[in-house]
Every structure is written in C-alpha cells, then in structure tokens.
Amino acid sequence: MICENYTNIRKILLFRPHDLRDIMSFHTHKTSIEEGDTLMLYLSPSSLLTITVNSLTKNKHGATVENILQTTQGALKVRNLIGQKYGSRIELSKGSAYALHPTPELWTVTLPHRTQIIYTPDISMILFQLELRPGCIVIESGTGSGSLSHALIRAIKPSGHLYTFDFHEHRASVARSEFQSHGVGDFVTVAHQDVCQNGFGSEVERKADAVFLDLPHPWEAVPHAVNAMKDSGGRLCSFSPCMEQVQRTCEKLRGLGFVEISTLEVLIKEYQVSARTMSVMDLDSINANDNGPNAVWKDPLKIVSCNAPLTLAGHTGYLTVATLPPLLSRVPIDSVNGTNQG
Asked: How far apart are CA 66 and CA 58, in angstroms?
C-alpha cells in the first residue's frame, strides 16, 4: 500500500530525500525501470552488479555530473535504463547486459559482505524447516549482511513481521537503511542488541512463530528464544559451522523441552549432462567356433549421459532444527542427568 502511494505521487515528491522516493521492488513486482530503482545488472555468468538508477551523481569535487557506470562490457549511461522493461537487454559501449528484477537470491550473490553470509542452498532449507508462511512472526539473530533477512521477509509478507538483532551497531544501522531503500522496511524491525545477554526484549515476548540463530554461542540464546515463542509453540533453527557448537545447542534444546531435534548439512551435488560416443559390438556377427578376437563393431552410438561430480562443494555449516511444543505439553529435561526438571 505504501509503495503504491509513493508510485502515484512520485512526480510531486522529487524534491524529497532519495530514500523517500526509492520505490525499488523487493516488495512488489514492477514492469518498467524508474528513477531511484535498484536493479541487478547481469554482465556474464560470473559478473552481476547491483546498481541504483540515479541519472545524476556527484564527482570527487562535489559537482553534479551525469552518472556513467563503467563495467567489463563498457560504459553505461544510467539514465538510459529509465523506461526499459525489467529483463530487457541493455546495450553498453563494448557489449550488452540484462537489467534483472531484484530478488533475494540475486541480492545474496551481489550484496556487500559485512560478515560471512548464508547462501541460497542453506537459506532454502532454513525456510522449509521453519515452516514459514505469510503472517508469521520471525526472530533472527544476527542480522549480518542481510542475506537471509530478505528471504525471510519475502516468505512472511505482507502480514508477517521480522525482528532481526545484531550486536554490532554499525551493521544494524546499515541493514536498517538497506531494508528501507529496498522497500521492505515496513516488514522488519532491526535492533542493536546482544541477545545472548539481554534476550529479545518484551516487544516480542510470546509472539514469535519461529526463531533463527546464527551466533557463536547459540545455546546461550535458546532460553530467550523459549520466552519469545508463542504459547502454542514454534520452530527453531540454529546455523553453526562447528560440531561442538551443535552438541552444546542440542543439549540446551533438550533440557528446555524441545522435541524433534535434528541436525542437517546441505551439500550441493550437481550432475553434469553431456553427449558421449559409445562403441557397440555387433553380437549377431559372433561365430561360436571362432576362438580369435574377430569382433565386428557397429557404427558408434551417440548418447546423452549424466555424470556425478568427482568432488562436492565444501562445508558451510550445520543446521540444527527443533520444535517447541505447546506450553501445556512441554516437559523440560535435564540434559546432563536425564531427570525431569518439572
């Protein structure tokens, strides 16, 4: 609704600050490129850029000049993008590129790294395991570079909300600005907070459907996650690169009454499809009384084969997932001695 209103009155708001006019379409799909949009410029399979469509820019002397982007395919006058259709081919001085509609997947590939990020294979499994749908209330800690955050927002909007926390003030501030400029600021609340020490705050107490933890010591945040989840229960997922972190987290989850605890690792195994030539023996020409190597071969046969890779992509992290039962059916267990704490 807000993005639509900005679109309708955009022409009379050109004097307003840039962040108010930025109606880029992570929230809603758009057909044509407008001034202030952010898009993905596809140059080659190994070269993808995120650019903001500003016709003018300031040079190092502070003077306003025409915005010209230099790429591996040559120069691009950014004003030439305005009015083009998303997905269309854009001519550059030495080649061409494609202007792509922004998506969380493309943002993951092109975002500026402030921390190590979670990539699409793990993100897809996280969304599946957290059982997200429109209307869910989700807690994320930490925010990092915002790779997962964009995917979470897409899964829960328009009626859901993401509360994301980071202990680093600058990272939280930059992420907040990015969400606003990407048009999804209404669906996310960014907080600078150490959740292991201070929890998630009273604002989200007993409101969350799901909690995601990407922390050095996730087991310290698990009790706070219990306080934040709804009385009806919910799902929790923790991303950890080391098995020792997984073990301590599982002990804490079990001790606080979580069930269905499991740990996953997502590894990509990409099969290669290729055409091959295979020699075929003519079995009808074989003489049973012939003891010599006199085999007759047919014309080579061309086939399409599927080959498994010789190696797999390296380890990224372990995903530990668990379910918190409804309040009345929770049975906290002492994970050390196996005694009932309740």
From this structure: 8
Strands (E), 2-156: 38-44, 47-52, 56-58, 64-66, 68-71, 74-77, 89-91, 96-100, 137-141
Per-residue pLDDT at 11: 32
d(CA 227, CA 124): 26
pLDDT digits (tens, 9 = 90+) for 100-121: 999 999 999 999 999 999 999 9
The yes-or-no verdict on residue 126 having pLDDT over 80 is: yes
Q: How far apart are CA 119 and CA 319, in angstroms?
A: 13
pLDDT above 90 covers a percentage of the chain that reads 69
Confidence of residue 25 (pLDDT cuts 50, 70, 90): low
Q: What element of type H or E holds 149?
A: helix 147-156
For 243-267, the DSSP string reads HHHHHHHHHHHHHTT-EEEEEE---
CA–CA distances in Å: residue 2 to residues 21, 25, 185, 290: 11, 12, 11, 86
- Asked if residues 134 and 157 have their Cβ atoms less than 8 Å apart, the reply is yes
Q: Cα(104)–Cα(98) distance, rounded to whole angstroms?
A: 17
Residue the block writes with tokens 């048009």: 183
Tell me what pLDDT residue 20 has: 34
